[in-house]
Design brief:
Layout lengths: L4 H30 L3 H5 L10 H20 L13 H17 L12 E4 L6 E4 H26 L6 H5 L6
Antiparallel strand pairs: 1-2
Helix pairs in contact: 1-3, 1-4, 1-5, 3-4, 3-5
């Protein structure tokens, strides 16, 4: 079996985004049950110098759409970071999935060894495609998805590891 950029990236993005939606819905149910305005959770952060929950979703989705585009050699779509409600965050996740799932598998062909250029405040990164995916795109995606989970859990939302991981199908 050959493992390709597509076979690692696309199913992972679909799974993690689906699980992000699950924990966001559980956050919504928690807020409703406790009579807490959902904006309180959406603006919560783990530490004063960390981004709030809304920004965690924005960064997670920005990272994977940019990663997919760079690896496929296509233009990175721009999403304005204007979400302030749960519905808007859900729409952003859906738009990200639509983009990532819309990239044809053959667009990723050969990207394992292609040098990817990533502009960064700390200095531009030039890295081959496979390490870019495995050591940059996915760890950043998981970091922000985990932080979303952690913010909700810290605020009392009853979620656990299985909500983060999602369901697995036996083979």
């Amino acid at each position: 079996m050959t493992v390709s950029i597509y076979s690692v990236l696309v199913p992972t993005v679909n799974r993690v985004c689906a699980n992000m939606l699950v924990v966001l819905k559980k956050g919504e149910a928690f807020a409703a049950a406790k009579k807490i305005d959902m904006s309180v959770l959406l603006n919560s952060r783990l530490a004063p110098d960390m981004f709030p929950l809304t920004r965690q979703v924005q960064i997670a989705t920005d990272g994977v759409k940019a990663g997919a585009a760079r690896l496929a050699g296509i233009e990175i779509p721009s999403f304005p970071d204007t979400e302030t409600t749960l519905a808007e965050l859900e729409a952003r996740i859906a738009k990200t999935l639509e983009f990532v799932n819309g990239v044809a598998p053959e667009k990723f062909a050969g990207s394992e060894d292609r040098v990817i250029h990533v502009p960064r405040r700390s200095g531009d990164l030039h890295i081959k495609g496979l390490p870019y995916l495995l050591d940059f795109v996915l760890p950043n995606f998981y970091f922000h998805a985990t932080t979303l989970y952690d913010i909700l859990r810290h605020n009392g939302v009853e979620i656990g590891k299985n909500d983060f991981l999602g369901k697995f199908e036996n083979v």
